[in-house]
Specification:
Layout: H1 2-20, H2 23-33, H3 36-48, H4 59-66, H5 68-71, H6 73-76, H7 82-97, H8 102-114, E1 120-122, E2 132-134, H9 145-164, H10 177-184, H11 186-202, H12 207-222, H13 225-239, H14 245-270, H15 280-286, H16 296-305, H17 309-323, H18 328-333, H19 343-362, H20 379-386, H21 391-423
Helix pairs in contact: 2-7, 2-14, 7-8, 7-9, 8-9, 9-11, 13-14, 13-19, 15-20, 16-17, 16-21, 19-21, 20-21
Amino acid sequence: MEALTNFMDQKLGGPMTKLANQRHLRAIRDGMVATLPIIIVGSFFLIIGGNLPFPADWGIQIFLKENAANIVLPYRLSMGIMALYATFGIGFSLAESYDLDGLSGGILGTLAFLLTFTPVNVPATLNAGVAGWVLPMANLGGGGMFVAILTSMLAVEIFRFTDRSGIKISMPEQVPPSVARSFEALFPTTIVLILFGSITYWLGFNWHTFIAQLVSPLISAADSYASVMIQTFLNSFFWVFGIHGASIVGNIARPIWVVLLENNQIALEAGQALPAIAAEPFFQWFIYIGGSGATIGLALSMLIVGKSAFSKSLGKTVFVPALFNINEPLMFGTPVVMNPVLMIPFVVTPLVLGTIAWFATKWGFVNQVTQIAPWTLPGPIGAYMATGFDWRAAVLSIVLIIIATLMYLPFYKIYDNSLVAEEQGK
C-alpha cells in the first residue's frame, strides 16, 4: 500500500494535477461550466413544450402541445445555441490565462467560430416568415461544440502571438482602457477574419463535417458500458489518492457529454427514440449520488453503525452536505483519501451502481436523461427531473442509495471499530 501511495504521489500525482490545471483544458472547463445556467434553465422549456407527465386529454397538456412551437423557442436560443456561448467563455478564460484582455479573447473566439458557418440567403418567395441572410442553427448547439473549442483556442493563440510579437497598436496612457484594448485587438481581428474567412469561404472547407467525422467514433465509444466503467473507475481511483478525479475526467469528457445530451434533446423534440445513455446527468444522478464514490452511502453508514464519538459527531455534520452532493467534508474529514479500508467501497460501489443504472436504462426500465438538473438537488429529485420527470428514475435512485449504503456498511464498521479502540486507548 505504501509503495502504491508513493508511486501515485511521485509518478502520477504531479502529472495529473498539471493535466487538470493545463490552461487549455481549464479554459474548456471554465467556458462550458459558465453555460450551465443556460443549459439547466433552457432545457426545462423543452420538457414543458408537451413532454410533461400529464395525461394526453388534460387541458394543460393539450394547451402545451398546441403551443409547443413557441414554448420551446427559449430552449432553441439557449441550449440550442450553447456552443456559441461556450465559445465566448473559452476564449475569455484562455486569454486571461495568458494575461491578455479576456473580453477581446472572448469576442475573437466567437468571431472565429461564426466564420465557420456559411449564411444562407432565404428568398421571400418561400413564405417562411423571413427573407434575407440567415444563419443555420444546426451546429450552433452541442453538434458544433468541438469546432467551437478548436476555433476559440486558435483565435486566442493568434491574439497571443500578435501581443508577444508586438504587432499591435499601443495607445497613450491618457486613452481610456476600453478604447486602448479595442485598438490592440485590431491586428488579431484582421488575421482571424482573413484566415478563417478564407478557409471557409474561399477554400470551401467544411469545419463541422470534418470535425464530426473525426469525433464520431469517440462519441459512439463514450456512450458504451465499457466507457462508463472506465470513466467511473478513473474518477474514484484518482480521488482515493487525493487527486481531484472529477476535474480530470470531467475536463476531458464534458464536451462529449454535452453532445450526447443534445442528441437526446433533439430526438425528444422530434418524438424519436433517444440515442444516448451516458450523458453527464447519468453519472450525476445514478453513479455519483452524494458526490464522487456515491458517498451518500458512507454518510448513512456513519449514522447507522457509527459507535465512536468521532463517527457520531462527524456523521451528523456531513450527512446534510452529502444529501446535496457535497462530499468534501467526508472525503477529507473521515478521511476517505488514503484510507485503505474505505477506498475499497469508494472504488467498487460506483462501478456497481453504474452497471445497474446503465442496464436499467438500456433495457428501458427508466428514461434516458434529457436535461441537467441543479447538481445540489437530493439524488431522487435530481434523477426525476433529469429524465423528464420519470418517477421510475426516482425509485431507481433510492434503490441505488440503499445498495451504496449496504456496500459501505461492513467496511465502515471495521473502520469505526478501530476508532473506538483508539478512543479507549487500546
